[in-house]
Amino acid sequence: MTLPDRDFVAVALARFDALANYQVTLKSTSTGAETVEVRYAYRKPGFVRMDFIRPHGGATLTFNPESGKVKLWPFGIDTFPRLTLSPDNHMIQSPQGHRVDESDIGALLVNVRELQEHGDTQVVGAETIGTHQAAHVIVTCRPGEYVTGVFRYELWFDLSHGLPIKVVSEGESNEPIETVLMENLRIDVPDSQLRPFA
């Protein structure tokens, strides 16, 4: 399969800018840490809902960009207790230091774009990820320059909607930091089908 000649990162950023919301199941693996699986929902201008499948199955976390606060229900939404936290609270950051208010695809793509500006981009070719045809792209930073501690991103952009469906981040010594699979991605979900964000 021949890939179109394009900047897949720029296309993905434009696609993200045009969408109103999305839902996806995220599976994150990293060395020495338990696999994290989350039903993730995002609505502009930055509302986030994360329903944890594992670990902490049943826990729900929401972020409201208007209040700047995170609400955490350890045992499921609308159950007691409910905690109100700042997004920089270490208790709710990932092992890689990801914050809920910077967890969306757009934030990832901004980091990738910044890395592109300080390095090289290679389009490897077309590959199949699950049932999706994807463009495999590698963005590598020049030595000594980092974006949020990442030296290299490998991304697979779905050729039908242009957004990433798999991302691998690595450090300067090619040590893996995190692998994220994005499954069942739905874009511009009708409001009636979106889980509530509060």
From TrEMBL:
Gene3D superfamilies per UniProt? Lipoprotein localisation LolA/LolB/LppX (2.50.20.10)
Q: What domain of life is recorded for the organism?
A: Bacteria
Name the chain's protein.
Answer: DUF1571 domain-containing protein
- Its source organism is Paraburkholderia guartelaensis
